[in-house]
Amino acid sequence: MSTKTIATQRAAMNMPTGRLAIWWVLMSEIVIFGGILVSYVLHRLAHPEWAEQAAYTNVHLGATNTLVLLSSSLSAVLAHAAAERGDGKRAAFLLRLTILGGLIFLIIKSFEWTHEIHEGFTLQSGGFWSYYYTAAGVHAFHVIAGMCIMAWVASTAAKNQELHRVENVGIYWHFVDLVWIFLFPLLYIAK
Amino acid sequence: MSDHATAAPAHGAVHHGHAEPNWFLKYFWSTDHKIIAFQYMFTGMAMALVAGFMAYVFRMQIAFPGQAVPLFGFVSPNVYNALITNHGSIMVFWVAMPVLLAGFGNYLIPLMCGCDDMVFPRINRLSYQLFLLSAIVLLVSLFVPGGGFGGAWTAYPPLSAVPKYNLTPMGSTMWVLAVALEFVAFLLGGINFIVTAMNARAPGMRAFDVPLAVWMIVVASLLFMASVGPLIAGAVMLLFDQNLGTAFYNPARGGDPVLWQHLFWFFGHPEVYVVLLPAMGIVAEIMTVFARKKMFAYKTVIYTVIATGALSFFVWAHHQFVAGIDPRMSNVFTVTTVIISIPVAEMCFLYVATLYGGSIRFTTPMLWALAFMAEFLIGGVTGIYLGASGADIFFHDTYFVVAHFHYTFYPIAIIGTIAGVTFWFPKMFGRMMNETWGKIHFWGTIIPFNFIFIPMFILGMYGEHRRIYDYTNFPDLANPQLQALRITSTVALVVMLLFQFPFLFNFIYSMFKGPKAEKNPWKSNTLEWTADSPPPHGNFPEMPTVYRGPYEYATPGRDTDYWPQNEKA
């Protein structure tokens, strides 16, 4: 985007266009995850026997992953602070650290899933497992998307360009964290 | 498929990228909001022709069961199901949405807000490309082995989820994929619309200086954004049920088929307002211009629209009165459904009050706008019967329902669209359309339209079920009087479809040969009329500043009866 339209540079709401847009993106995401989670919670309440299935999930790995994902948000915040100071190089480094956090999250998750599939709990193993894999899978898809966007933002930030994007991608990443904070107790802890 | 999709590569091949190196870039890869608006509109119009042809084929089968349909041949039960399913899906998702919301939204928002483009032009382009892909996936799904999906546009499981039941394993998967892609396209577009209208308004343009068309398109985008999420989740779940063996909608394995109905209608009912509001906005612009009057209670209209939008999230289960939901829940949803008719009726009254005492000019766009009000009224009034759970138990899945929602959707998708196209045609293409042909098309469309659907109300009251392929097998429904009504309806449809050719001819001829239009042929106030016709890339020679609201017509003490928004006092 070498030449921006006049429209992009206006701010009738006194908020940069990109940040305003990212909040609307989050709103549309909230209802997507809301749809899955409300469906899950209502079914879970109607099926107390799902608790036996939920007992097979690995709470320790889930908790580790929660820690990993939340820590990765710290570097996203620090990246924003660096971008505010105009230090694009530092922001890019910190964003890449966040990507690393996302990667560790995905690696742990893949070990977890491999183990569960070996135990015979697959997508086809009934109601609980349908929700378990689909909800976490849609979340993981968002983690991957966030990592790709962050890699792209980091590459421009390293050249000290488009530094406002560092904040926007950070807002998105916090949202992805927040979704996991709902998923972890609902899928792992609730027995 | 669309003229664009087929024409662009062929054109490129002829010129070999030399003679007109920019043709592809200009009309297919453009980030200009006006070109993207045309892409949406032309794709939508092409899809409307496809869906109109489908309606012709299945109506012929109903009127003359078992006989070969001219231009198509014999209609088998499976093909019949695929035709009605895809007719509904296309008209809602690939005609009403792209033309009214995306087409007019793209065209009008930057022009009416006085800026040069959308805030995210490249995301706008991506939005159209995803939409085009979704349309192609849907059209291809009609020709895959097993045929197109035939489980109705609402796609209730288990019929939609189990290949053994629907017999269209590929068709049903592709249908869900196409719908999901289309939703992503409109989410991208909707975010663009909302942010552009919020943030990129011309200097001096306050929220209550924004024309109603923009307000309504923005509220519609918000409704879409807030309601479509659960259905996106539901579509992913349906795809997994179809192909990966999950158990979301399978009661034997811990799922629930009614879940889909909740997810679908939680979106599906606000969706009615998603397409209604842009049409209402277009009609508001046309009525004020051709009544030469200030919009009656402009702010009240906006508050009413917001109230309607909020209420529309609490009515969805009125589609499910016979789906086995709790009768106490039916009571609640009956009440909310009847309540939502209040703000909509209020809007209609405000529009009529706008006309009162105006100096009305019956131009073609004005005729369409008035017809919109009259026909939509019938759709709204019959909706009250269906919203009452007691009456709905009898009417559910009869032709009364079909007639009712066509009396809402047809005014929206066809009448509202043509009103908008005929009104903004001079701006879009820089030439005037022919008024005489426009009026012939108007009467030739409106009169047969009523002859199509009034018989259906009557048939529905006789208890005619809507999903039957051949009524001769049902002794109660096969009597000659009912058949006469079916034939009336089909003949009226054929007449109406034939009357679309004058419109197409008028549209294409006027685009190239019509008399040149000046900047502001209708003497309108809003900003788009201060740009050239058609506006160049960047829209305005000099970015406008706004000094007043959009509807200052017939202001006392002025020489002219209009007062453009950008004219200094």
How would you describe this protein?
The complex is a heterodimer of chains A (about 190) and B (about 575). Chain A has about 190 residues and is mainly alpha-helical. Chain A has a domain at about 55-190: Cytochrome c oxidase, subunit III, four-helix bundle (Four Helix Bundle (Hemerythrin (Met), subunit A)), CATH 1.20.120. Chain A is about 80% helix and about 0% strand. Chain A is built from seven helices and no strands. Chain A has helices at about 5-10, 15-45, 50-55, 60-85, 90-120, 125-155, 165-190. Chain A is elongated and about 55 Å long. Chain B has about 575 residues and is an all-alpha fold. Chain B has two domains: about 1-30, no CATH class; about 30-530, Up-down Bundle (Cytochrome C Oxidase, Chain A). Helices cover about 65% and strands about 0% of the residues of chain B. Chain B contains 17 helices and no strands. In chain B, helix 9 (about 255-290) packs across helix 14. The longest helix of chain B has about 35 residues, at about 75-110. Chain B is globular, with a radius of gyration of 23 Å. Residues about 1-20 of chain B have low confidence and may be disordered. The interface of A and B includes residues 27, 36 and 134 of A.
